[in-house]
Amino acid sequence: MSKGMFLRSHRWANPVSDPKNRYTYERFLQETSCAKTYPIPIEEYIDYCLWFQQQAGPNVDETYVASIERNALC
User: Fold this and answer.
1) Which of 21, 46, 49, 54 is 20 to 30 A from 62 (CA-CA)?
2) What phi-psi label fits residue 68: left (phi over 0), alpha (psi between -120 and 50 degrees) or beta?
3) How many independent structural domains does the chain possess?
4) With bands split at pLDDT 50, 70 and 90, how would you rate the model's confidence at 66?
5) Whether the model pTM is above 0.85
6) Is 37 left (phi over 0), alpha (psi -120 to 50) or beta?
7) Residues 62, 27 contacting (CB under 8 angstroms)
8) Which residues contact 70 (CB under 8 A, 6 or more apart)?
9) Domain residues for 14?
10) Does residue 40 sit within a domain?
């Protein structure tokens, strides 16, 4: 999505996999002092996803893929 766009769905319809509900969107809003808005700006949702990653899995190894090739044996 381009900058300045909005998610059409509501907050509750955009969950990130969090079975114990420890890192909810509501908690993100409280801890970051973001205002509760609708529709959700894409930049805010990306900030939430990055916050979630930092809370739930801080040791993520960012790997960039330059190319993918199909192996003829598979």
Assistant:
1) 21
2) beta
3) 1
4) very high
5) no
6) beta
7) no
8) none
9) 6-56
10) yes
